[in-house]
Amino acid sequence: MQDPNSKLTLASGRTRLPAAKVQTRLSAIFQALRFDPDIAEEVAAHLVDASLSGVESHGVMRVLEYAAQVESGYLTPSGRPQVLRDDTGGPTRIEAGGGIGIPALRLAYDTCCDEARARGLSALSIRHVGHTGRHGAFAEAAAEAGCLTICLGGGNRQTWRQVAPHGGARAMLPTNPWCIGIPGGDRGPVVLDFATSKIAGGWIYAARSAGALLPEGCVIDAAGHPTRNPEDYFAGGAILPAGGHKGFGLALLGELVGEALLGPSTTECNWLLIALSAERFREAPAMAAAAEEVLDELRRCPPAPGSSGVEIPGERERAHRAASGGIVSVPRDTWTQIERLADRLGVSAT
Fold first, then answer.
1. Helix (H, G, I), strand (E, B), or coil: what is residue 51?
2. What are phi and psi of 20, to 5 degrees?
3. Where does the chain cross the membrane (predicted)?
């Protein structure tokens, strides 16, 4: 197995556990927090898969954040996503009821892709939703089913002021992620899943729980000075936008979609999901062959000095999952906090 390609500089080591054991533990914690058993199992499986895929910011450490949100009343554990259709022919909407967003995003992608396969193109919104997990997992499944998907969103910046706009020194916007997935070549779909900030907000929480330092050049403190200490972010600091004005522009578009088009947003963000059936444009074998020609040429590009070579978006996560051997690697301090949470909730060890 391999440890995740982490952005964190850890002060302590890691705990390595079988994925099945971690998933059982997390599911029990979620049920103790009053999530329905099927929701608890789905969320636990998603977090474990994110960790196995090397996306530590959206992995098992998130149980700590979700628990705090339930206990504060911010997140509604009884919330279950529903598909709402407008009888007048308006767009489909996924209503999450203030609940956790992972089952809502899964339902949204399934629904949107079903509609796209039936009529070629579909667009729907996801509202009143908590944290939606690793979008790349949903986009990958949709691409494997033959759909191109585009997901973006934002809103609720009054609650989630995380990122400074380009040229600014104060947190004003959420991280407003974008995710695009498309059927690929021989190695599977191409999935671009990114925050519009230099680092996803989850990495800040991961660093805090692990007692770790953040990468350089990603975060500023309340005075606008660069910092690697996650506590400086929580004390009035901000994350910087990815690519300067480009990340800011993408974040702004996400905010306008989430708040002006779909709003008002509650709980976390509002999302717009668009799906189209790739086979309406080109038969799957021909598209896969053409895609592989492009991707293979890029992989064979000579590596830059100090680089291991060109990586295709989405392939790193699949390779990491395959190399994990079913073992989840968690910062030791983070796992200690998860065990303390379990003990406090009366969850017995497995």
1. helix
2. -60, -40
3. none
Q: Which of 127, 143, 46 has the alpha carbon at shortest distance from 93?
A: 127
* Amino acid residing at 122: S
How far apart CA 254 and CA 286 sit, in angstroms, is: 33
Tens digit of each residue's pLDDT, the chain (350 residues):
556 667 777 777 899 999 999 999 999 999 999 999 999 999 999 999 999 999 998 999 999 999 999 999 999 999 999 999 987 778 899 999 999 999 999 999 999 999 999 999 999 999 999 999 999 999 999 999 999 999 999 988 988 899 999 999 999 999 999 999 999 999 999 999 999 999 988 889 889 988 899 999 999 999 999 999 999 999 999 999 999 999 999 999 999 999 999 988 888 999 999 999 999 999 999 999 999 999 999 999 999 999 999 999 999 999 999 999 999 999 999 999 999 999 999 998 76
Helices (H), ranges, the chain: 19-32, 37-52, 62-72, 101-119, 135-144, 201-210, 230-234, 245-255, 284-299, 315-323, 332-344
Q: How far is CA 162 from CA 29, 158, 169, 220, 240, in A?
A: 28, 10, 11, 11, 9
> Using CA atoms, how far apart are residues 348 and 273, in angstroms rounded to an integer?
39
Q: Are strands 92-99 and 121-129 parallel, antiparallel or unpaired?
A: parallel
Rounded to 5°, angle at Cα 67 from 62 and 68:
100
How far apart (Å, rounded) are the C-alpha atoms in residues 16 and 2? 10
Whether domain 14-344 has CATH 3.50.50.60:
no
Token couple for 95: 């209503």
The structure tokens 């500023």 sit at 220
Partner residues linked to 95 by β-bridges:
82, 127
Query: In the sheet that 82-84 helps form, which strands lie side by side, from edge to edge?
Result: 82-84, 92-99, 121-129, 270-277, 147-154, 178-185, 188-194
